[in-house]
Amino acid sequence: MHPQKKFHLVFSFIMGAMMIFIMTFVITTVNVGWSAQFFGFWFKAFCIAYVVGVPIIFFLAPVARKLTGRLLGMPA
Hints:
It is a single chain. By secondary structure, the protein is mainly alpha-helical. It has one domain. It has helices spanning 3-32, 38-72. Helix 1 (3-32) packs across helix 2 (38-72). The longest helix has 35 residues, at 38-72. The protein is elongated, with a radius of gyration of 16 Å. 5% of the residues are buried.
């Protein structure tokens, strides 16, 4: 695998874990509060969101970079 593609894949997994951890934690806290079932609900939400989120990051991050570059008038 080309180093740039490998970097992008690993980046997607790491960025997905960090972003999805925080987002599912916050949303689960808002929806459930601190209850005895909190960690079960949060972990389920995290697992589902991670499976969905990592491929989205993998495929949309390059698009977001290009759009950002265009908006800021920077070369691709």
